[in-house]
Design a protein that fits this description.
alpha/beta, single chain, 25% strand, 26 strands, 10-stranded mixed sheet, Trna Endonuclease, Chain: A, domain 1, 3 domains, 540 residues, 5-stranded mixed sheet, Rossmann fold
Length: 540
């Protein structure tokens, strides 16, 4: 029972209340935090991964390995906070919109529109996952979040709190329906939104959307600068007194009334020296050469995305039906929408993309298509639960068919994109920090360590140690027991290569003295300490 008078409070209680009041927000979003079972479970159990090798797909050892994790995304993100902290280039998520009719569950109960704590439950759910997601983003990483008007305002304030208001990048409006619904009572809802935030807005490069206008660049002087087109020296805006004397042609040029110059006088002088200003008889003014290589990085993306460019909802439903030959998912997103996010947010072709509300697997499909088109080595990590068998019956079969190829509804054979996929499920070990439980965590750490180091191909599989390698020649060693140290060292000498080595230790030491004779070959890390330290931060 709450105490009514401060005189009834102890000194410790008063100090605690004062500290609490100091932390009280002056502005922001406030909600009643609701206890969530999957979060509470982590006080007793620690999440790990278990691989289902029967679902692994390997088409080429030269191609990157993609990951599908079946399980609650809070647990999956907890694991990724160890394996991929600061490694993810871009996150795209399509979370529950909390409309009260789409089956959003909280503690295994559907949250309907009449639930008085509907918004609090959704915010509690999202806050925990977005906080974990922020940790896995690179410093120059971006997150794109699909949402509609039901939780748009709340999500914007929540993201301001988690990522920082200064790291807000844009709000994109997506026209996702191309027709007007006559059944609408008030307005026909044709749009949804994407909120875009940076991990650190000062660390991201200029954002550009690919723009192929090569057909306009028809001129080429064969001087090594490549194709170009002619651009005016001025642009319409407002009247600014500005003129320039082109001595080469003995003409005085003045920016026309109602326009402004595109280039400073100093820039014009440099361009003249480089033969990048042209004047021809009959022209009203000289023109600049704009080279294709100057614009190949793309153009600034608009905050209005039309479904005719990135796909409508109907396109998304059709894409999935073509692959699975049935209506398997009510509201997938089109691959073009995800592709636009990736093309804007990532310049590198070997980036890592995360989607922890993976649903039908659209993000994975989009990445496989992109890699197939430009020989990229992008990787995706998808996380989804198996509610209504969405992972095993929709997401996984979709990815499998896209990779291997399939026959569409018209009986036309569609060639596969190729690629590799590893399938994991979340599992648990006891959290109480006894020696026995620490050993249990070590015994179940193999998949997490392989994922962290991107080494999956087994070279040596012994009871007390294992050795893995990847396509780039990186070696990983895991030693599960003291008796595995010496035989592992013998293998290192045979292979004669540098290793990342995780060695069982009940404390935070990596047993360096026992590896002194091969110290030039091994980078030692203690397990389970390296994992437990991350979990202590998350589950404190």
């Amino acid at each position: 029972m709450a105490k009514e008078n401060f005189s009834d409070w102890s000194k410790e209680e008063l100090v605690k209340e004062i500290k609490k009041l100091k932390k009280r927000k002056k502005y922001g979003i406030v909600w009643e935090d609701k206890t969530e079972q999957v979060v509470e479970l982590c006080k007793e159990k620690l999440p790990v991964l278990v691989e289902d090798q029967s679902r692994n797909i390997v088409t080429s050892k030269e191609k990157p390995i993609n990951i599908l994790i079946e399980g609650d995304n809070y647990h999956a993100l907890s694991v990724l906070n160890y394996t991929h902290k600061g490694k993810i280039d871009i996150i795209y998520i399509d979370p529950p919109y909390n409309r009260g009719n789409e089956g959003f569950k909280y503690n295994d109960k559907i949250v309907d529109s009449e639930d008085p704590y509907r918004h609090s439950k959704w915010l509690s759910f999202m806050e925990k996952r977005l906080s974990l997601a922020k940790s896995v983003l690179k410093r120059n990483g971006l997150i794109f979040i699909s949402i509609d008007e039901n939780e748009f305002a709340q999500l914007r304030l929540l993201c301001d709190e988690i990522f920082g208001e200064k790291n807000f990048v844009a709000c994109v409006t997506w026209r996702q329906l191309h027709t007007v619904k006559n059944s609408a009572r008030f307005f026909s809802k044709n749009t949804e939104y994407l909120l875009v935030y940076a991990k650190s807005i000062h660390s991201i490069d200029r954002l550009r959307q690919p723009s192929d206008k090569s057909e306009s660049y028809v001129n080429d002087d064969n001087d090594g600068k490549g194709p170009y087109k002619y651009d005016p020296l001025s642009a319409r805006n407002k009247n600014i007194e500005y003129e320039f004397y082109f001595e080469k042609w003995n003409i005085h040029w003045k920016a026309p009334v109602g326009s402004y110059p595109r280039y400073s006088q100093e820039t014009l002088k440099r361009m003249l020296k480089k033969n990048e200003i042209v004047w021809k008889e009959g022209w009203k003014e000289p023109k600049a050469k704009r080279f294709l290589q100057q614009v190949q990085e793309g153009v600034p993306p608009s905050t209005l995305w039309d479904g005719s460019e990135v796909g409508f909802n109907a396109n998304a439903t059709g894409e999935l039906a073509e692959i699975l030959s049935r209506d398997a998912f009510l509201s997938p997103k089109p691959t073009g929408l995800i592709r636009r996010c990736v093309e804007i947010g990532i310049k590198s072709k070997d980036a890592i993309v995360l989607d922890f509300f993976a649903g039908s697997g659209t993000t994975g499909h989009a990445i496989l298509n992109l890699n197939n088109e430009d020989d990229g080595r992008r990787k995706f990590i998808l996380c989804t639960d198996n509610e209504n068998n969405i992972c095993t019956d929709v997401c996984y079969p979709r990815l499998e068919k896209v990779i291997k190829g399939y026959e569409n509804q018209n009986k036309v054979k569609i060639q596969g994109t190729k690629g590799n996929l590893r399938y994991f499920r979340t599992d648990f070990v006891d959290a109480e920090p006894t020696d026995l439980n620490k050993k249990g965590l070590v015994d179940k750490s193999t998949e997490m360590l392989c994922l962290k180091e991107d080494c999956f191909d087994a070279v040596k599989h012994e009871e007390t140690f294992r050795i893995f390698v990847n396509s780039e020649g990186k070696y990983l060693g895991i030693i599960y027991d003291d008796s595995g140290i010496e035989p592992f060292k013998r293998e290192v000498r045979k292979i004669n290569h540098e290793f990342v080595v995780y060695v069982f230790s009940l404390d935070e030491s990596a047993r360096e003295e026992e590896f002194e004779d091969i110290k030039d070959f091994v980078e030692l890390k203690p397990i389970p300490a390296v994992i437990l330290n991350v979990y202590r931060r998350i589950f404190k």
